[in-house]
Write a structure and sequence with these properties.
This protein is α+β, with helices and mostly antiparallel strands. The chain has helices at 2-5, 14-20, 27-36, 52-55, 61-68, 76-82, 141-151, 160-170, 183-192, 196-208, and strands spanning 40-44, 47-50, 72-74, 93-97, 102-106, 109-115, 125-130, 134-139. The chain has two domains: 2-55, no CATH class; 61-212, no CATH class. Strands 3-4-6-5 form a four-stranded mixed β-sheet, sandwiched between helices. The longest helix is centred in the last third of the chain and has 13 residues, at 196-208. It is elongated.
């Protein structure tokens, strides 16, 4: 147990787990035993996390999402909910990546990955550090909202009023937070991303819509 505790909540591959038990004749059998007892959780082939039974800490699905498929960062509804900008509990951990779209059903939940253009991908992405023990990549609130707009099929927002109604009625977005949004991030998303018309309406709302905040 002590060997596993040192790993904390960081996802690890098979080789790292084997290295903890390299004094045994069959580390692979030991790993199977640990999994059977629920002391480690296999997220996918060659990726594990130590169970909360061992370290008594909550597993970070955001951190797992970064490791499960990458490079990627947490975004869309998952990031908006993380920041408390939308009230709904999200059914999946959603991320943006630069490779093909991907989905995983795991013991820790459902994970989805949406592809973005390479030049658009790094805009507004930062590292969230949790208690000096681990960190994960996540979109800024501005980038997460832009990602949500871009990734939503058949979404047409041709005016500032339309974007306002989408935020208030569809997302139930915390409108007061818009006052803190950085227009430069939205401008960069317009430059490198898709749905330029919709994102331009969002930018206009940020620049001229203070009466809505």
């Amino acid at each position: 147990m002590e060997r596993l505790m040192n790993l904390g909540v960081i996802p690890v591959n098979t080789d790292i787990l084997y290295s903890l038990y390299n004094d045994l004749k069959s580390p692979d059998k030991k790993l199977s035993e640990l999994e059977r007892k629920g002391l480690v959780i296999r997220v996918k082939r060659n990726l594990y996390v130590v169970s909360p039974k061992v370290h008594k800490k909550e597993i970070s699905t955001e951190l797992v999402a970064n490791h499960l498929y990458g490079p990627s960062y947490v975004s869309l509804e998952s990031a908006l909910a993380y920041y408390g900008l939308i009230p709904e509990r999200v059914y999946a951990m959603r991320s943006v990546c630069i490779k093909l779209h991907k989905q995983y059903d795991t013991p820790l939940g459902h994970f989805e990955y949406v592809k973005a253009p390479a030049k658009y991908y790094p805009v507004g992405v930062s590292q969230e550090i949790i208690g000096n023990s681990y960190a994960f990549l996540i979109a800024s609130p501005e980038k997460a909202l832009c990602d949500k707009i871009i990734a939503t099929p058949n979404l047409r927002l041709q005016s500032v009023k339309a974007i306002q109604e989408y935020l208030e009625e569809d997302l139930r977005f915390e409108m007061s937070a818009l006052a803190t949004f950085d227009p430069d991030t939205v401008e960069a998303c317009i430059e490198f991303g898709k749905k330029k018309t919709e994102l331009t309406q969002l930018l206009k709302l940020l620049q001229n819509g203070k009466e809505y905040f």
